[in-house]
Design goal:
Elements (H helix, E strand, L loop, with lengths): L4 H11 L16 H15 L3 H15 L7 E3 L3 E13 L7 E11 L4 E6 H10 L13 H8 L1
Bound molecules: zinc ion.
């Protein structure tokens, strides 16, 4: 597939370490489009959409937020904590939007599995179907999200 200059620029930005330590692509050698396409196929196999996953992440984030960094129990099933850090994260796609540097950690009590995400992850999944490249600090595996959050 021919890649447009704006795709290449996006990819450079996604690989940059200026935005997040390790960038958004980590050590992944696939293109951004391949990452998005393969994760979309994986989600489809799992019977969920990116919108459903993002909305679940947002729902749990909103439960934890009022506790201001303390752990809360949710749905008799999770322990969740949402911590705010100084600064903001910027979506690498060219549109307006800054996301608070809020990291939410969710532990599923019955399995003790843990997963963390930032507010920007929610946006990247919802608006761009992007779970980040392998090796990126905030890479999220669709299978982990579906198994832990549903
Ligand atoms: Zn965006």
């Amino acid at each position: 597939m021919k890649r447009s200059p704006s795709d290449l620029k996006l990819e450079q930005m996604l690989r940059s370490s200026k935005l997040v330590a390790g960038g958004f692509m980590g050590t992944d050698s696939r293109t951004v489009e391949e990452v998005i396409r393969e994760d979309a196929a994986e989600l489809e196999r799992l019977g969920k959409t990116a919108a459903q996953v993002a909305s679940r992440m947002r729902e749990l984030t909103l439960i934890a937020r009022p506790a201001l960094g303390n752990w809360v129990e949710a749905e008799n099933k999770y322990r969740i904590r949402s911590e705010e850090w100084k600064g903001s994260l910027i979506c690498p796609w060219p549109h307006v939007g800054r996301y608070e540097k809020r990291i939410t950690t969710c532990i599923r009590l019955e399995t003790n599995e843990k997963i963390d995400w930032s507010d920007l992850n929610i946006h990247l999944i919802e608006a761009h179907g992007f779970f980040e490249g392998r090796g990126a600090y905030f890479r999220l595996e669709p299978a982990d999200l579906v198994r832990i959050l549903f």
